[in-house]
Design goal:
This protein has helices spanning about 5-20, 25-50, 55, 60-70, 70-80, 95, 100-130, 135-150, 155-175, 180-195, 200-215, 220-225, 230-235, 235-265. By secondary structure, it is mainly α. The chain has one domain: Glycerol uptake facilitator protein, CATH 1.20.1080. The protein has 14 helices and no strands.
């Protein structure tokens, strides 16, 4: 076959877990900042593509094309190189095999998560000061951020689970691919599916919500977005935390349980020593 079998990918995932847990602090910091920014680039492109598309193509096609545009974020992470918290929800497979410790995984998650946050915020500020988040794009950014921060805990949690099930599957399938073109296709469809479906990604939300908070005092954009006072009030640090906590928890469950645990249990008898 021109790609790795699921059993072979399971072995590769264990090797990747060892490599990721062996990264030095500065490597996790730099690669985590890059990954946060890369996902932010996907988020900004999504905002640009969907700013008025539903008016011409309908809501369904708008979501589909928006999801397709967002895939560039994970492509940059996987192919150019980056450390992404949601993708790293796969590495607990190394704990189950016994090749990495829970402490090493926790250290990677903590360093990478907050490095992703730095990269996401950095990208949001760069977009804000570039002036590109104006008119319809800025209004769309405000609506996206407000909708995310208004989500109740339960829906945010379950959308986070569904999201990272697909995101980690995209990473899993990209590990099966033997060439760059195959990796791109492996990433494209699961990521397009999660975005078009309306699932919630913690690192993407770091960008979306930060740019929304930065734009919340722009009266012209608020009027263009048609936000009510209630929708506007959620654009705050409290709204940020109300979303990011359940979505992050959901992302962990989705990636660890439905990919790492399930595939380890399915193929543990075929793992190399």
């Amino acid at each position: 076959m021109s790609f790795k079998s699921p059993a072979e990918v399971t072995n590769s995932a264990c090797s990747v877990a060892v490599a990721k847990c062996s990264l030095k602090f500065y490597q996790m910091l730099l690669l985590g900042i890059l990954a946060g920014a890369y996902i932010g680039f996907g988020g900004f492109l999504y905002t640009v593509v969907t700013q008025d598309l539903s008016k011409y193509a309908g809501m369904g096609l708008s979501k589909l094309l928006g999801g397709a545009s967002f895939t560039v974020g994970l492509m940059l992470v996987v192919i150019a190189g980056g450390e992404l918290f949601t993708g790293n929800c796969l590495i607990p497979i190394g704990i189950m095999k016994g090749c990495v410790t829970p402490g090493a995984v926790a250290k990677n998650w903590i360093f990478v998560y907050f490095s992703n946050l730095i990269g996401s915020i950095l990208l949001a500020y760069l977009i804000f000061y570039s002036g590109l988040a104006s008119e319809l794009v800025g209004a769309n950014a405000l609506k996206i951020a407000s909708n995310k921060m208004a989500l109740a805990f339960g829906p945010a949690l379950f959308r986070g689970i569904l999201c990272n099930w697909l995101v980690v599957l995209a990473v899993w399938m990209s590990m099966a691919a033997e060439d760059v073109a195959s990796k791109i296709f492996s990433i494209f469809f699961p990521i397009m599916a999660f975005v078009a479906s309306g699932f919630e990604h913690s690192i993407a939300n770091m960008y979306f919500m930060t740019i929304g908070i930065l734009l919340r005092h722009n009266e012209a954009l608020i009027a263009q977005a048609g936000l009510t006072d209630q929708a506007l009030n959620v654009l705050s640090l409290k709204g940020f935390m109300n979303n990011i906590i359940p979505v992050t928890l959901g992302n962990i469950v989705g990636g660890v349980l439905f990919v790492a645990v399930f595939y380890y249990l399915a193929y543990k008898d075929k793992l190399s020593d």
